[in-house]
Structure formats: C-alpha cells, structure tokens
Amino acid sequence: MAVKTLKYLFIEHLLFVKDGFYDGLKQISRSNSFLKLEGIEISDVATNSPLLSELIDNNRFYFVWVNLDFPLELKEEHTTPVALLAAIKKKYPETHLVVTMRNITVFSLRKVFKKINPQIVLELIDCDRETIIDALRSVFKKEVYYSRNVLMLLYKFLETFEVMDDTDYAILHELDLGTAVSALPKKVHLAHSTILIRRTKLKEVFKLVGKTDMDLIKAVKTQRFV
C-alpha cells in the first residue's frame, strides 16, 4: 500500500497536552505504517514562527488542533484561535478541527459550536493521556469526540434546549458580568418589559421563583450554564 502523507497543525502551549499528543501520534503511526504524518507545532508566541495566515494558504491540513486560550500574536490576521479556525473551516471544510478549552460552560460551548462546530472538543481538566489518545484516534476515523465534562454540558444544553435560546443565555451572561437590568436592553436588544418576562421564565426553569437575580446567577454558574 502506498504511503499517504497527512499534514497537521498543532497550536498548544501546555506541556502535559503536548506529551499526550505526541504519545498518541506515535501509537497511531506504529499501527498505520502506510501513514506519514507531517506536522507544524506552534507553542510559543515569542518564537519567529511563520504567520498562521501563510500556513493556511500554503498547506491543506488533515487536522488542526488548537488550544482556544492560546495567545495569538497581534501581527496575525486572525487575532483569536476561534477566528483562525473559522478561516480554516471556510477554506478547507473537510479539515478535522480539534479544540481544547479551559473552564467550559454551556454558554461558551454554544458560541464555539455556532462559530466553528469542531468535531472534537476537550476540556483541559479532562485531558489525561488516555483521553488525548482517544481523541486522536477519532481524528483518523473522522469521528466526533467529546471529553467527559463536555458531554455533561451538552446534556445540560439538550435538557434545556426547548426552554432557553441564545437571548436567554445572553441575559444570563450579562447578569453574570454585573450588568444592571436597566442596562440590558442595549446589550441584548430587547425591550425592558420583554427582558423582565424572560428573567421570570429563567427563574421558573431553575426553580427559583421569588428569588433574587443573584440567586439565579449563583445557580446557573454552579451548574456551569455560564
């Protein structure tokens, strides 16, 4: 069987993730002798690495693995990891996208799925060696894979899918930031009366009728909705 060369882009600065990643690639290479893996790693913004926009233009990557907390340089055309992945997805829709995230919430997951819809999502706290290797195996099987905490949050999202929409999450997010209810209309683009109705509905959803906004935010943060 002819050797097939597959390229990948790996943007990660955490050593324990890098160790698991390369252990996984070694295992996959040993069990697939017909595969040749060629990768580009970016792990330090201080290095004189090529512009990511140039890498995207000059390489068709089989998969791209990115830590969404990675600090991209200001000289980059795409100044956030999500913007970078959105550009890759637009140019190469077949590329498998893998993201790692810290302190994931249902709100942050919704935003990521709406913008880039990655096939694989891992919360960093879940990233032991076995999870990382399982995720890599899923890449080469062209399968989706979510780590344990991500699955738990997706289940919470599905549980409330019919009663909470994007605007509800936006209201909760703003309340969590400390935005006054009187200032919410400019933030979420709804009439004040409509916001009050939605706030009441949210308190019903979380069984907090008659409780304060602070009680509501404490509950949704504890359950990792925001």
Question: How is the secondary structure organized here?
Answer:
Layout (H helix, E strand, L loop, with lengths): L3 E8 L3 H17 L3 E8 L9 H7 L4 E5 L13 H11 L4 E6 L4 H10 L4 E4 L5 H12 L4 E2 L1 H12 L6 H12 L6 H5 L3 H14 L7 H10 L4
Parallel strand pairs: 1-2, 1-3, 3-4, 4-5, 5-6
Q: Can you tell me the CATH topology of the largest domain? A: Rossmann fold
Most strands sheet = 6 strands, parallel
Note the gap between the termini. Answer: 50 Å
CATH class of the largest domain: Alpha Beta
Helix and strand run: EHEHEHEHEHEHHHHH
Strand order of the largest sheet: 2-1-3-4-5-6
Low-confidence sequence ranges: none
How much strand content do the residues show? 5-15%
Based on secondary structure, the structural category is alpha/beta
**How many domains make up the 3D coordinates?**
2
Q: What's the number of extended β-strand segments?
A: 6
Please report the number of helical segments. 10
Assigned CATH architecture of the largest domain: 3-Layer(aba) Sandwich
Structure description:
The protein is α/β, with parallel strands linked by helices and 226 residues long. It folds into two domains: 4-157, Rossmann fold, CATH 3.40.50.2300; 166-222, Arc Repressor Mutant, subunit A (Orthogonal Bundle). Helices cover 49% and strands 15% of the residues. It has a six-stranded parallel beta sheet, sandwiched between helices. The radius of gyration is 20 Å and the shape is elongated. The termini are far apart. This is DNA-binding response regulator, NarL/FixJ family, contains REC and HTH domains.
